TrEMBL record:
Belongs to the ribose 5-phosphate isomerase family. It catalyses: aldehydo-D-ribose 5-phosphate = D-ribulose 5-phosphate. This is Ribose-5-phosphate isomerase A. One of its GO terms (cellular component) is cytosol. PANTHER family: RIBOSE-5-PHOSPHATE ISOMERASE. InterPro entries: NagB/RpiA_transferase-like, Ribose5P_isomerase_typA_subgr, Ribose5P_isomerase_type_A. Catalyzes the reversible conversion of ribose-5-phosphate to ribulose 5-phosphate. Keywords: Isomerase. The gene is rpiA. SUPFAM superfamilies: D-ribose-5-phosphate isomerase (RpiA), lid domain, NagB/RpiA/CoA transferase-like.
Length: 228
């Protein structure tokens, strides 16, 4: 199976955790694309009443087109379950997200959610985080000053650009600075440092957040419980 097929395996298993009446956070990315399709199928066929909260305009558009009722994050203070993709997950169920530049909205939705499930293909499981460049969202004012500060700390910041070479902007109009750190030995310490940097709106370390990971493998979906 190719990577896309493995993502679909994970997404189609995760939809089993969706229950009637739930307010459901919907993540962003190619794995979530399959999830939204699978949820819409259950809404249609089983007449499930669910309400979605999205983390990007891409997901919002897809969900609405497929008939999933949607509300905004400002319309609720409680989400029952959020299902999202991830870029890396380590053995302690800590993760990196933001490959799709949506990590700020994703973190808001995830931290409003009672439960979080991540859906990934098996290539996303790692021993130590950091091979995937860690995304940060940086506000335009003083952004090169932030870059210099992070470079001085040895965090190897690189602005994310699109195929035309332009700076990628987030939903909020900010820039994405990817940190090529190699190995993140102490994710909590790095998160603390980044949280303290004025100018960085949010970073892609998602620590102590995920409850379950559904992994798409060649032999089917595997559910890993984080024990939190
Ligand atoms: O964090 C994300 C977007 O900001 C995605 O969840 C992450 O990049 C995984 O994407 P995909 O499912 O396409 O591999």
């Amino acid at each position: 199976m190719d990577q896309s097929a493995l993502k679909k395996v994970a997404a189609e298993r995760a939809v089993d955790f969706v229950e009637d009446g739930m307010t459901l956070g919907l993540g962003t990315g190619s794995t979530v694309f399959f999830l939204v399709e699978a949820i819409a199928r259950r809404v249609r066929e089983e007449h499930l009443h669910i309400t979605g909260v999205s983390t990007s305009s891409r997901t919002e558009t897809q969900a609405k087109e497929l008939g999933i009722p949607m509300i905004g994050i400002d319309d609720t203070d409680h989400i029952d379950l959020t299902i999202d993709g991830a870029d890396e997950i380590d053995r302690h169920f800590q993760g990196i997200k933001g490959g799709g530049a949506a990590h700020t909205l994703e973190k808001m939705v995830a931290t409003t959610s009672a439960q979080n499930i991540w859906i990934v293909d098996s290539s996303k499981l790692v021993d130590t985080l950091g091979a995937f460049p860690l995304p940060t969202e940086v506000i335009p004012f003083g952004h090169t000053q932030v870059e210099r500060r992070l470079a001085a700390e040895g965090l190897n910041p690189v602005w994310r650009r699109n195929d035309a070479g332009e700076l990628v902007t987030t939903h909020n109009g900010n820039y994405v600075l990817d940190l090529h750190v190699g190995k993140i030995a102490h994710p909590h310490l790095l998160a603390q440092f980044l949280d303290a940097q004025t100018g960085i709106l949010e970073h892609g370390l998602f620590l102590d957040i995920v409850n379950k990971v559904v992994v798409g493998t060649e032999s089917g979906a595997e559910v890993l419980n984080a024990g939190r």
